[in-house]
C-alpha cells in the first residue's frame, strides 16, 4: 500500500499489449537484408575520430544528402550532369532516370539504417542516384581524359572547374569517395556509365575508378594485371572496389584460403586441431624488440600491401605511404569489415599487426629508415595513428596467423 493509503498499482491490459507487440514483431523486417552493404559507421568507432567518417565537401547517397554544409557542391554535381546531357538533354535525362527507377528498390536495399524522409521519397531517391552517380562517372572520365561521346575529343576539364583548378578539391574527393556512409551502389554506377558511354570509349568503369584512386597509400601493381582479377567479381561500391584491389592480388590472402580449406578437410576427417591453432590471433613484439633479437626488416615490392612475410630471419613488408588521407582509408575499410556480414577482417588484421609492431616513435623511425614507410606525418603522429586504429574492433582469427607466429 502506497503512502496515504493509496494504491498506485497500474492495471495492464495484457490482451491489448500482446496485440501491440504482435504488430511490432510481425509488421517489421527484423532480419538484416543480405543486400545491405552501405552502413552508418557504428558510434563506438566514430567516437575515436569523427572527421574520418563524414564528408568534407561532397555527399554521395542518402545518409549525408541533407547536410547544410554540403549543399554548396550540389551545383558542381549539376554542372557535371549538364556536361553528360549536352548532346540531347531531355531524352538522355529521361533514359537515365528511367533506368535507375528500374533498380530503385534494389538500390534502396543496399543501405542499412534509416534514410531521411525527404530523400526516402522514390522520386527524390532516384534523382539523387542519377545526380551523384553521373558526377562520379564524369569525374573519373575527366581525370582520365576519356573520349567524348559525340565527337571523339576528350572530356574537357574546363578552366573554371573547381575540381581541377582548386588544389584542395581532389584531396577532398579522395576522402569523400571512400567513406562507408557516402557510397552509391556499384550496379547503379555501372548502369549510368553504360547509358552515357561513347563508341570510342574503351576503358571500363573499374579501370577509371582505380586510376582516379591511384596511389592513395601504396605503390600499385600494373593496373591491367589487377583488372583481370575483377572478371566475374561482384563489386558492391567504390570502398569495396578499393578493398578488393588489395585483397585479390594478395598472396597472403590466397595462402589463408588454402590453409583454411586444409583445416576444414582435417576437421571433417576428425583429425587434430593444429591447423585451427595456427589461425588464431597471436600478438607479436615491437620493431625495436624484434631488432634487438636479430630480426631484420626488409622493404619488398609486392602485389599488395597485405603481403607481409617472415622468412630467413627477416620481416618482409611492402611499402606504405602514410599521409593525411591514410587514416581515413584504413578506418573506413575497418568499419566496412566490421559491419558487412561474413566479411573476413583482412584490413583489420593488418592494422592490428601494425599496432603490435609500432609501439613507439622509435619503431616508426626504424621502418622509415628502411624505406618501408614513406611517412608524410611526424613520427609521433604516425605512431599514434597506428596505435589507435584497432580500438573497439574485433578479430577472432587473423588472415596473417602464420606470419604473426613468426
Q: How is the largest sheet built, in terms of strand order?
A: 3-5-4
For the sheet with most strands, the description reads:
3 strands, mixed
Number of DSSP E strands: 7
User: Could you state the oligomeric state of the chains shown?
Assistant: single chain
From the N-terminal CA to the C-terminal CA, the straight-line distance is 70 Å
Radius of gyration: 25 Å
Order of helices and strands: HEHHHHEHHHHHHHHHHHEEEEHHHEHH
Number of helices: 21
Q: Which overall shape is indicated by the principal axes computed on the Cα atoms?
A: globular
Structural class: mainly alpha
Q: What is the residue-mean pLDDT, rounded to a whole number?
A: 86
Spans of at least 5 consecutive residues whose pLDDT stays below 50 are 261-265, 270-278
Q: Helix share of residues?
A: 40-55%
- Percentage of residues in DSSP E strands: 5-15%
Can you lay out the helices and strands and say which pair or pack?
Elements: H1 14-26, E1 38-39, H2 43-46, H3 74-84, H4 89-101, H5 104-108, E2 111-112, H6 117-120, H7 122-144, H8 162-165, H9 167-176, H10 186-195, H11 205-213, H12 223-228, H13 238-247, H14 251-268, H15 274-279, H16 287-292, E3 296-300, E4 309-311, E5 314-318, E6 320-322, H17 326-339, H18 346-357, H19 361-369, E7 373-375, H20 379-389, H21 401-404
What tags apply to this protein structure?
406 residues, mainly alpha, 3-stranded mixed β-sheet, two-stranded parallel ribbon, 7 strands, globular
Amino acid at each position: 500500500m502506497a503512502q496515504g493509503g493509496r494504491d498506485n498499482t497500474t492495471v495492464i491490459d495484457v490482451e491489448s499489449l500482446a496485440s501491440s507487440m504482435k504488430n511490432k514483431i510481425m509488421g517489421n523486417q527484423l532480419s538484416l537484408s543480405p543486400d545491405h552493404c552501405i552502413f552508418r559507421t557504428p558510434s563506438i568507432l566514430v567516437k575515436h575520430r569523427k572527421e574520418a567518417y563524414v564528408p568534407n565537401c561532397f555527399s554521395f547517397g542518402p545518409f549525408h544528402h541533407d547536410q547544410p554544409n554540403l549543399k554548396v557542391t550540389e551545383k558542381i554535381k549539376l554542372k557535371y550532369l549538364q556536361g553528360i546531357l549536352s548532346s540531347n538533354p531531355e531524352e538522355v535525362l529521361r533514359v537515365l532516370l528511367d533506368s535507375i527507377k528500374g533498380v530503385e528498390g534494389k538500390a534502396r536495399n543496399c543501405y542499412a539504417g534509416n534514410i531521411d524522409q525527404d530523400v526516402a521519397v522514390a522520386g527524390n531517391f532516384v534523382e539523387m542516384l542519377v545526380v551523384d552517380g553521373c558526377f562520379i562517372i564524369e569525374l573519373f572520365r575527366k581525370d582520365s581524359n576519356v573520349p567524348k561521346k559525340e565527337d571523339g575529343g576528350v572530356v574537357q576539364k574546363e578552366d573554371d572547374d573547381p575540381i581541377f583548378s582548386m588544389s584542395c578539391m581532389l584531396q577532398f574527393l579522395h576522402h569523400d569517395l571512400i567513406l562507408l556512409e557516402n557510397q552509391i551502389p556499384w550496379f547503379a554506377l555501372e548502369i549510368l556509365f553504360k547509358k552515357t558511354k561513347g563508341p570510342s570509349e574503351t576503358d571500363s568503369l573499374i579501370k577509371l575508378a582505380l586510376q582516379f584512386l591511384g596511389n592513395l597509400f601504396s605503390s600499385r601493381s600494373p593496373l591491367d594485371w589487377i583488372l583481370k582479377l575483377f572478371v566475374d567479381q561482384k563489386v558492391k561500391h567504390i570502398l569495396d572496389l578499393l578493398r578488393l584491389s588489395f585483397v585479390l592480388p594478395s598472396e597472403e590472402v590466397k595462402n589463408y584460403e588454402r590453409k583454411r580449406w586444409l583445416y576444414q578437410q582435417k576437421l571433417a576427417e576428425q583429425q587434430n586441431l593444429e591447423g585451427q591453432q595456427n589461425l588464431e590471433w597471436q600478438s607479436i613484439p615491437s620493431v625495436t624488440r624484434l631488432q634487438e633479437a636479430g630480426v631484420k626488416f626488409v622493404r619488398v615490392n609486392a602485389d599488395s600491401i597485405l603481403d607481409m612475410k617472415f622468412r630467413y630471419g627477416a620481416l618482409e613488408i611492402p611499402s606504405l605511404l602514410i599521409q593525411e588521407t591514410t587514416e581515413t582509408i584504413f578506418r573506413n575499410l575497418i568499419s566496412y569489415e566490421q559491419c558487412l556480414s561474413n566479411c573476413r577482417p583482412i584490413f583489420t588484421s593488418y592494422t592490428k599487426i601494425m599496432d603490435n609492431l609500432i609501439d613507439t616513435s622509435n619503431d616508426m623511425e626504424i621502418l622509415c629508415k628502411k624505406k618501408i614507410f614513406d611517412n608524410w606525418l611526424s613520427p609521433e603522429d604516425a605512431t599514434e595513428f597506428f596505435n589507435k586504429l584497432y580500438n573497439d574492433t574485433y578479430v577472432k582469427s587473423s588472415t596473417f596467423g602464420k606470419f604473426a607466429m613468426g
